[in-house]
Structures are given as C-alpha cells and as structure tokens.
Automatic annotation (TrEMBL):
The keyword ATP-binding does not apply. Belongs to the RNase H family. It is an enzyme of class 3 (hydrolase). This is Ribonuclease H.
C-alpha cells in the first residue's frame, strides 16, 4: 500500500497542506520562488505550515566535522561561479542554478524539467555557466560537485543512460544544444570540483536533502 505523503506549500498559487502530489504541483509548477516540502505525517505537516519554510529545509541531520583540506586542495576561489542541480525523487523533475560565490547572487535558474536526472542537470548547469561567462568575456572558474558532469564536459558529451520519452524530450533537446555549444566553442575557464568534505555544502545547493 502506497504511503500517503503530506505536501506543505508555504509559497505558491495556493498555500496549505495537500495530500495529492498533482494538486500540490499545480500550486508550485511555474510559480517563481515556490516554497514547499513533503512530510510523512499530518502532524509534521500541520506543525510545518505554522512555521517558516527555512526552518525545515535547512534542518538536517548532524554531519561529521569538515576535514582539514590538504595543501593540494586549499580553499575555494571566491571569485567564481558555483553550480548545482536538484532532482525531485517524487516527480522526476530536475532543475539547476548558478550562484556567484563571492556574493551569493543567483546568476541563473532553470527548470523544473520533467523526467531529467541530477547528472544531466549538473552538466547543463556547467555549460550554461560557461556560455554566460563567454558572453561576459570572463575567465572565472566554475565549480561543480559532480565528478560525472565534469567528466562529461571534458568529453563534450553527456553519457546518460536516460531513455528519451515524450515528457523529457525538452531535456534531450537542451542536451543536444549543450553538446553542440561545447563542440563549437572554446573556453579558458577552469572547471573545478567543489570539495564538499573539506568546504561544506555547495553554495548553489537547493537545500532539499
């Protein structure tokens, strides 16, 4: 028997608690800066709706202390763009964003897109950042915490095993454009790995873990 989820919408077309994902999705899909989260019980949802969204999306289990970064890793470059993607396990929707690390300013946000994957989102985010920086004639480095996406950038090909469907056709069209951009453009920007175990959470993380 499928377990009932309770969806709290703090900011959307309608706010409140929803027990049906499709109904919740109507309130948040395409709504700029929508704020929502799922809970396993009605008691948790009722408590959440009385509080702030940020109280719940930032509430995480205790994590081990950060490791001291060796000299070979050092500290992240503040004058950089950091990218990340989010994949919704309930819907399969994917989105990605880029943040200017030094100020925390969001540079771009794309999605959600139906039936994507996290690695695809990470790959598209890196290419988006590179194209953005090219237009700005900037050689800022780009950070991602996805080794897979970084390897795809080097190969100029997204080696995804995701199957093409009518729902995710737009995602595959974006992948084709991204691969074409990589094949026809050159860039001097360094693509660097965000070292989470030493530096903490990626600043572009969506905070939904």
């Amino acid at each position: 028997m499928k377990k009932t989820k309770f969806y709290v919408v703090w900011q959307g077309r309608k706010t409140g608690i929803f027990t049906d994902w499709k109904e919740c999705e109507k309130q948040i899909k395409g709504f700029e800066d929508a704020k929502y989260k799922s809970f396993d019980s009605i008691a948790e949802a009722e408590a959440a709706i009385q509080g702030s969204y940020w109280e719940f999306v930032t509430k995480k289990e205790a994590k081990p202390a950060l490791k001291e970064a060796p000299a070979s890793i050092g500290s992240p470059i503040k004058d950089s763009i950091v990218v990340d993607a989010a994949w919704n396990t309930a819907t399969g929707d994917m989105e990605y964003q880029g943040i200017y690390y030094q100020t925390g300013q969001r540079i771009f946000l794309q999605g959600p897109f139906a039936d994507g994957t996290n690695n695809i989102g990470e790959f598209l985010a890196i290419v988006h950042a590179l194209a953005y920086l090219q237009k700005k004639e900037s050689n800022l480095p780009v950070y991602s915490d996805s080794r897979t996406a970084i390897s795809w950038i080097r190969k100029k090909h997204a080696n995804t095993k995701l199957a093409l469907t009518p729902r995710n056709k737009p995602v595959f069209e974006m992948l084709q454009r991204a691969e074409r951009w990589l094949a026809t453009n050159t860039f001097s920007n360094k693509i660097l790995k965000w070292e989470t175990e030493y530096w903490g959470e990626n600043p572009a993380d969506f905070g939904r873990k």
